[in-house]
Amino acid sequence: MYLCYSNFTMNQSFHLTPAQKALKINLDPDIYGTFAEIGAGQETVRHFFRAGGASGTIAKAMSAYDKDFSDAIYGKESDGRYVTEVRLRKMIDHEYGLMQERLDNSQFPKRRFFAYANTVATINFTKKFLGHGWMGIRFQAEADAAHNDIVFHIRMKETEAKLQQETIGELGVNLIYGAFKHHSDANLLLRSLFDNIPLDRIEIDMIHVSGPCFENVDNRLLSLQLIKNGMTDAVIFGPDGHNLLPAALLYKKNILAIRGSFRPVTKVNLDMLQKGYNMFTKEKRVDKDNLVVLFEITLNNLRAEGEINEQDFLDRAEILCSLGHTVLISNYQEYFRLVEYFSRYTKSRMGLIMGLTNLKEVFNEKYYRELKGGTLEAMGILFSNDLKMYVYPSQTSKSSEIQTIENMKVHPRFKPLSDYLIFNRRLVDIQNFDRSILQIFSPKVLHMIKEGEDGWEEFLPPYVDMIIKEKKLFGYKASDESTVVVSDEED
Question: pTM for the complete prediction?
Answer without folding.
Answer: 0.89
